[in-house]
């Protein structure tokens, strides 16, 4: 089998790295520290996978992490780019991960590389916008597209998208809402399964409450611990799969692009709903610290990013100039 045939059959993704005994001592320490910080298990698992690549590199050049030089880090990131074909975004994730790794293990040798990288503008947390925000009109067109589809779950799917828009929840948070989390009289949900491990309360419109109450009457299971958005293909009350609602959203966006409603160059993804909610709330005068709490962000910096603060700042400067 030649190389082209291998690529067609297996793709070009690098083989997963298996940790050695030496690497495991670092991974164990990192895992313990992250668990102490209450970092979500899925996040820790992904970080461990990436760290295996870094630690394998250390073994390859026969150095311990604490003995690496600035130039060694340069070689590592060149390797990510050239041998593993990592995108700029993935390289940025490695950079941020190594900052955490070296801080937790109390090794200082990454700091010089970090300072130099900042000076050279090599890594930047938000150096490019990976997807576009969404406004109310586009959101409405997406809802309409889902409702007009032939899918027998179209009501449920459109309702999930509506809840995502109104609450600003993450996809996993909305799909994890259970009956016991709902106050239908007040139109409030308690969000438990959060990225930050901190519970918060979100609200929906009264009209959405009425639609939701009509929908959940058809649920197979309605005990307090059951999910409100259930997978209709499985009669045990399991929640809707994350990929399902993502694909429903993608399909609607793709159709609207074909019709010219959404510009082809716009990258609208399901997370754009969360960005759109942040922008909408700020445009309506809701203080940014309140928006931060509603969205469940750890820092105001993230909320500013979600609201596309550069565009907002440019608009504010234009308005200030008119007052001069």
UniProtKB/TrEMBL annotation:
The keyword DNA-binding applies. GO terms for molecular function: DNA binding. Keywords: DNA integration, DNA recombination, DNA-binding. Residues 129-318 form the Tyr recombinase domain. Signal peptide: none annotated. Pfam families: Phage_int_SAM_4, Phage_integrase. GO terms for biological process: DNA integration; DNA recombination. Gene3D superfamilies: 1.10.150.130, Intergrase catalytic core. It comes from the Archaea. Residues 21-106 form the Core-binding (CB) domain. The keyword Cell division does not apply. This is Integrase/recombinase XerD.
């Amino acid at each position: 089998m030649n190389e082209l045939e291998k690529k067609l059959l297996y793709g070009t993704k690098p083989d997963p790295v298996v940790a050695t005994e030496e690497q495991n001592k670092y991974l164990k320490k990192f895992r313990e520290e992250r668990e102490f910080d209450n970092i979500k298990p899925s996040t820790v698992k992904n970080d461990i996978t990436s760290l295996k690549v870094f630690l394998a590199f250390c073994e390859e050049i026969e150095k311990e992490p604490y003995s690496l030089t600035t130039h060694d880090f340069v070689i590592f990131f060149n390797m990510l780019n050239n041998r593993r074909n990592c995108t700029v975004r993935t390289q940025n994730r490695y950079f941020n991960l190594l900052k955490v790794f070296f801080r937790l293990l109390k090794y200082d040798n990454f700091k010089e590389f970090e300072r130099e990288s900042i000076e050279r503008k090599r890594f930047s947390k938000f150096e490019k916008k990976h997807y576009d925000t969404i406004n109310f009109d586009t959101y409405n067109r997406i809802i309409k597209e889902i409702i007009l589809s032939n899918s027998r779950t179209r009501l449920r799917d459109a309702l999930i998208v509506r809840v995502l828009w109104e609450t600003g929840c993450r996809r996993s948070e909305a799909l994890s809402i259970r009956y016991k989390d709902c106050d239908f009289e007040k139109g409030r949900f308690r969000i438990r399964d959060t990225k930050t491990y901190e519970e918060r309360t979100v609200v929906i419109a009264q009209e959405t409450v009425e639609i939701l109450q009509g929908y959940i009457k058809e649920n197979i299971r309605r005990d307090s611990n059951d999910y409100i958005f259930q997978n209709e293909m499985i009669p045990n009350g399991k929640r809707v799969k994350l990929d399902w609602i993502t694909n429903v959203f993608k399909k609607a966006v793709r159709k609207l692009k074909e019709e010219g409603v959404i510009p082809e160059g716009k990258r609208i993804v399901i997370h754009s709903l969360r960005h759109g909610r942040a922008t909408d709330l700020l445009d309506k005068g809701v203080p940014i610290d309140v928006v931060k709490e509603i969205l469940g962000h750890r820092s105001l910096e993230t909320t500013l990013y979600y609201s596309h603060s550069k565009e907002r700042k440019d608009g504010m400067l234009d308005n200030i100039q008119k007052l001069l």
